[in-house]
Write a structure and sequence with these properties.
The complex is a heterodimer of chains A (about 325) and B (about 325). Chain A is of the alpha/beta class. Helix content of chain A is about 30%, strand content about 25%. In chain A, helix 6 runs parallel beside helix 7. Chain B is an all-alpha fold and about 325 residues long. In chain B, helix 7 packs parallel to helix 14. Classes of the chains: A alpha/beta (about 325), B mainly alpha (about 325). Bound molecules: adenosine-5'-triphosphate, iron/sulfur cluster and magnesium ion (MG).
């Protein structure tokens, strides 16, 4: 299959006055054209930092990539090692918005209030494509129509405050799609929207993905969204991937106690009254346990868990889990680079 | 837009009327009036008490024996003719003559000061905000902190000292040389004016800079934290474009709305600097008139300041409405 992005053992740490925050602490996944990777985990587990690291949007004075690799495979030409590019250089700016686009959680604040929707979409088009202003405007109207905005010829000249939340997120999607990116990173694109709008937006993203054979990274803390769109899922906890598996396995046969906990806390039709939230809460960034980071909340915790960090155990061609319960299987060497 | 402006001008006119009325009354509230002040001065210089009939006569000729409200209407009655009363303090000279040139110079200095302080404070604010917590940022922030906590007159004295003794300019205060002080405008006078201008302009401009710098820096830091800035970067835009086109463009809006408040402040707030530097602005006669309850003069200056305030706010509102599409002309 066409791999477009390959992330290996990525570690991004924040160096702040109070110490080091290991926001992303060993994340690996690969992404294929036309497929959707879901990243799920509770608030603060490092989902957004992962996506911002890929885009190289984090200020080098604040966050450092301390280990790992991010390989982007362009349609033609040699793979680009994104951890090595200058975060303010031409190379990454040619990729941003053009080959890898991103939409954000807060549609109300993701658009600049003093420029029209059209100006903001055209800005991206004119930046990455060698077209005239008229063509860029026509394209902006086209993408607005594509994302289901009524009367796009008029809406194109309106300001963000004249759009509702759902319409703004559509406009954001239109902006992200305006240059036909090969990868779309959606960081909780529907969290701020109500349920009916959420369903519409997810459907829209999937349809566009299908039409353009675009790879999608869907970041969310909502397993329902994952079930809706993802092909493959990684479950994150405290900056680490605790389980990586095809979406069906995640729902039907979750391996990691944390994944099981997430599923059990999910209200689902027909499951009756066995709603069990995970006990405890995510520890703060400075109080990370020594062994398995989930140990303080894990119902299956063993002595070993508190002493040693579990490596990733390979359970199948596309499944691994970082939990000592699966120790019988072959242990994959923990990338150390 | 036009109805918006018309409505604003109309309400401004009413405000103006109220301001002049209140200030006219307030100036005369304390015991005594301009005549008794003048009489005391005369008696002190001649050593002879003035006969009471003379004082009464004075009061009557000036109309001070009438109720304040009548005096007020008599006063404003002259406005359409350009008659703003007279000043006893300035040997009965018409207020219009005393203030005409000073008003022009005050506006000129105020606007020039604004451009200088903005022209410096905005770039420095951007510089500091985009280098948050760097050594340069700390340096500029400390400097601006010293700037806002030092009294204006002290800054003026320090700058004057630097200008004269360190930079060795031959500036000796004022805006004109002695021979041009009350001369009509000629090429020579203009040249003389231009020669005098740099030092007071620098002093006034730098004095107002610290506050503007701090506001600009704080605004920009606020904006740079917003999601749409990251979204702009995620589009692949150059950092320069993100900073100027997307962030600074919004960060200056609060400065625009501040101009409305600042314009009269620039004028009244520089009274002390004007006295230190002997600048022919509205400040010195205003202080003198207030001290002596010379109410036509003081009232007129107050009215001019109020007009500045209203015009400043009106301009600020119009510019802001144009600059920020979220603002409606309601
Ligand atoms: N600018 C920053 N400075 C310091 N720490 C940060 C910064 N941004 C994120 N972090 C830390 O990195 C960790 C991961 O944050 P991240 O935003 O990736 O979480 P998330 O999984 O996206 O959560 P959410 O669901 O709330 O969006 C958190 O512990 C957070 O405190
Ligand atoms: S390693 Fe131990 S503590 Fe961690 S999830 Fe597995 S069983 Fe629970
Ligand atoms: Mg997040």
């Amino acid at each position: 299959m066409d791999t477009v992005l390959e992330v290996r053992n990525l570690k991004t740490y924040f160096y702040i006055e109070q110490g080091v925050i290991r926001a992303v602490d060993g994340v690996s996944f690969s992404l294929q054209a036309g497929k959707t990777l879901g990243i799920v985990g509770e608030s603060g587990c490092g989902k957004s930092v992962t996506s911002r690291t890929i885009m190289r949007l984090l200020s080098p004075t604040l966050a450092r990539i301390v280990a790992g690799s991010i390989k982007y495979y362009p349609a033609d030409g040699a793979p680009v090692e994104l951890t090595q590019v200058d975060p303010s250089g031409d190379q990454i700016r040619d990729i941003r918005g053009n080959e890898i686009a991103m939409i954000f959680q807060e549609p109300m604040t993701s658009l600049n209030p003093v420029y029209t929707i059209g100006q903001q979409i055209m800005e991206a088009i004119l930046l990455h494509q060698d077209v005239s202003k008229e063509r860029a405007r026509a394209r902006a109207i086209d993408v607005l129509r594509l994302v289901g905005i009524p009367l796009p010829e008029q809406r194109v000249d309106q300001y963000p405050h004249e759009f509702s939340g759902g319409m703004r997120q559509r406009a954001m999607i239109a902006m992200a799609l305006s240059c036909n990116p090969r990868i779309l990173i959606a960081d909780e694109p529907t969290t701020a929207l109500d349920v009916t709008i959420e369903a519409q937006i997810l459907e829209l993203i999937q349809q566009i993905q299908h039409d353009n054979n675009m790879a999608l990274i869907m970041i969310t803390h909502d397993l329902n969204v994952i079930g809706e769109v993802a092909d493959h899922v990684i479950v994150m906890y405290l900056g680490q991937v605790v389980e990586s598996a095809p979406v069906d396995d995640i729902f039907e046969n979750p391996k990691h106690p944390y994944t099981q906990g997430l599923l059990n806390s999910l209200p689902m039709i027909g499951r009756g009254d066995r709603l069990e939230p995970i006990i405890g809460s995510v520890p703060g960034p400075h109080e990370r346990p020594r062994g398995c980071s989930f140990a303080p909340r894990c119902p299956h915790v063993m002595d070993r868990c508190r002493a040693e960090m579990p490596p990733s155990f390979v359970l199948g061609p596309a499944s691994d889990v970082a939990c000592w319960l699966y120790d019988e299987t072959i242990e994959v060497s923990h990338d150390a680079n | 837009m036009t109805t918006f402006i018309i409505r604003r001008v109309f309400s401004a006119a009413i405000t103006l009327f109220l301001i002049t009325l209140i200030s006219f009354i307030v100036i005369q509230l304390p015991p005594g009036d301009v005549v008794s002040n003048w009489v005391r001065q005369q008696e002190a210089s001649t050593g002879q008490p003035l006969p009471p009939e003379t004082i009464e006569n004075l009061r009557r000729t000036y109309g001070f024996d009438e109720p304040i409200i009548i005096q007020y209407f008599k006063w404003i009655d002259g406005f359409p003719r350009g008659d703003f009363g007279f000043s006893i303090e300035y040997s009965n000279a018409p207020v219009a003559d005393i203030l005409a040139q000073r008003t022009g110079l005050t506006v000129f200095l105020g606007v020039a000061t604004l451009f200088i302080s903005w022209g410096l404070a905005i770039p420095f604010g951007i510089f500091a905000a985009t280098r948050k917590n760097s050594r340069w940022d700390y340096f500029l922030s400390t400097l601006s902190f010293i700037g806002i906590s030092t009294p204006d007159f002290l800054i003026a004295v320090i700058y004057l000292f630097i200008a004269v003794f360190v930079l060795k300019t031959d500036y000796a205060g004022g805006l004109f040389s002695q021979e041009f002080k009350d001369a009509p405008w000629t090429w020579e006078r203009l040249l003389d004016f231009a020669k005098h201008l740099p030092v007071p302009l620098a002093i006034l401009g730098l004095g107002g800079m610290a506050g503007t710098f701090r506001i600009m820096r704080a605004n920009l830091l606020d904006i740079l934290d917003q999601q749409f800035i990251e979204a702009a970067r995620a589009k692949g835009l150059r950092e320069r474009i993100v900073i100027y086109k997307h962030a600074t463009r919004i960060a200056v809006n609060p400065l625009i709305s501040r101009v409305g408040m600042q314009l009269p402040l620039l004028i009244s707030g520089t009274i002390i600097i004007s006295i230190v530097l002997d600048l022919p602005t509205l400040g010195p006669p205003f202080i003198r008139a207030l001290n002596r309850q010379d109410m036509f003069l003081a009232g007129t200056v107050l009215m001019i300041l109020a007009i500045f305030l209203l015009i400043g706010n009106l301009i600020a509102d119009i510019v802001l409405a144009w600059s920020d599409p979220r603002i409606q002309y309601e």
